[in-house]
Specification:
By secondary structure, the protein is mainly alpha-helical. It has four helices and no strands.
């Protein structure tokens, strides 16, 4: 569950940076309109998947509403998802490790 969130956080953040570059090319230089459209559609679909995974992780980790909202919105702010993902992993990893059964003595 944590791994799929991490993957989607990075994918969403990279796609958002690519989208920002495409927007600069489109509106600043008048080129790449079709590419911008394709990247924006791909980012939209990937962001929806990110929302699902982040919400699933947040509900299982019992995050307060404010934190869940910040994590969900971090996919819309360029570079924010990189920093939020690190904090989420640092705070959630002990919960994941604590939930694992102790290895049996053989």
């Amino acid at each position: 569950m944590l791994t799929r969130y991490r993957v989607m956080a990075y994918v969403t953040a990279v796609m958002l940076l690519i989208l920002c570059g495409c927007m600069v090319a489109k509106y600043g230089f008048g080129v790449g309109e079709d590419l911008t459209f394709a990247v924006s559609q791909a980012h939209g679909v990937l962001y929806i998947i990110y929302l699902i995974f982040a919400f699933d992780l947040g509900s299982k980790a019992k995050w307060p509403f404010g934190r869940l909202l910040w994590v969900l919105l971090s996919g819309t702010i360029p570079t924010a998802a990189f920093f939020v993902e690190r904090k989420v992993v640092r705070d959630t990893l002990p919960l994941v490790n604590g939930a694992r059964p102790a290895p049996a003595n053989a």
